[in-house]
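Thread: pyridoxine-5'-phosphate complex, take 2
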Amino acid sequence: MSQINYLEINPLPKDWERRIRKVLKELKNFYPKKSSNFTLVLTNKEKIQEYNQRFLNRNFPTNVLSFRGEGNYLGDILVSVEKAKEEASFYQLPLEDYLIMLVIHGFLHLLDYDHEKGLYAPWLMLKNEVKLCERFCINKEKILNFLRRREYMPAKLAVNVDHVATVREARKTYYPDPVYAAVLAELGGADGIVVHLRLDRRHIKERDVKLIKEIIKVKLILEMSLDKALIEFAKTVKPYQVTLVPEKVEEVTTEGGLELDGRVEEVKAVVKELNKGGIKVSLFLNPEEKVLELAKKTGAQIVELHTGKYAEALEENERIKELERLERASFWAKELGFIVHAGHGLNYENIMPVAALPTIEEFSIGHSIIGRAIMVGIKEAVKEMKELIIRSREGK
Ligand code: PXP
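Output below.
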């Protein structure tokens, strides 16, 4: 017999429970070894976070976890009803069906289907999820549409090559060349190349931007302040996207997000001008709802959430607090209709929890990749980061 247990939450309404029991019973028939049992444990966010941390070393609440059993016992599926509620409401899906979809997902993991393993595994897992959801969900169309376009799409990685130019400028030579680095980053799997053309031209120069635009196949993202001459330059180079950032000559790196208070009209005019030139505009912002609401008035298409505070947090609770702040802001930004990106200070140790946030579509990462590339080479450094981003979503 497969059963439902409740861990620190109230039982579901009786009719829901009955429906889930029926699904569990029929799921067993999907598996040829009919004598095998498994347990569905319904719990809250805290508990699933505890298990996620303890067994998978991931300190955030996920929606579903599976633990493989031994012999005839297939294992346990842990589902956070609280997390499922939040997600179902965000994706505007019926909770009952959403819960069933998570149970199916967990069940397939018990059968060793794994969307993380190898090239065809995601496809195979999805095929089975679609088949089972088609059978058990009431609002089939909504759930199936959701399944077909959801988290198997990992976030993208845009690689910032500024610091290759920093090394070049340390000796005012012609090497190492950020143009070569951009090509290698693309070969390593970068989905975009980022360069910051600073007012003092301390690393990237106009020549770098133009050559990178010529040579790469992936998109070029030009970071810059709202300086008039830079806007003119951007209009001639036509990168895929301009990211508007605040800039102080004396700063070591971009410090905070763009200040929009009292500047909406100014930013709006720049967005309009760049958009007219066929360039998408992203605003680099602190992850705050108030800021995002002001951003909406500028007409920008994308927001890049500043992950600096999260990255710099030394204490575990502070890091979790900052991660939750990013989570809330990313959901809110998506609600407002933005494409959501994030970046700053992300490295090989801190990337996975943020990369698991389903609302963030792209990460902009520079310093840590170029730093690692000194040790392992650019292609390898980009490949390693990309793998972490892919593994983080919905993953084990
Ligand atoms: N995003 C923006 C807007 C930035 O200004 C920077 C730094 O140039 C980054 C992302 C990348 O930050 P890091 O070099 O710390 O990865």
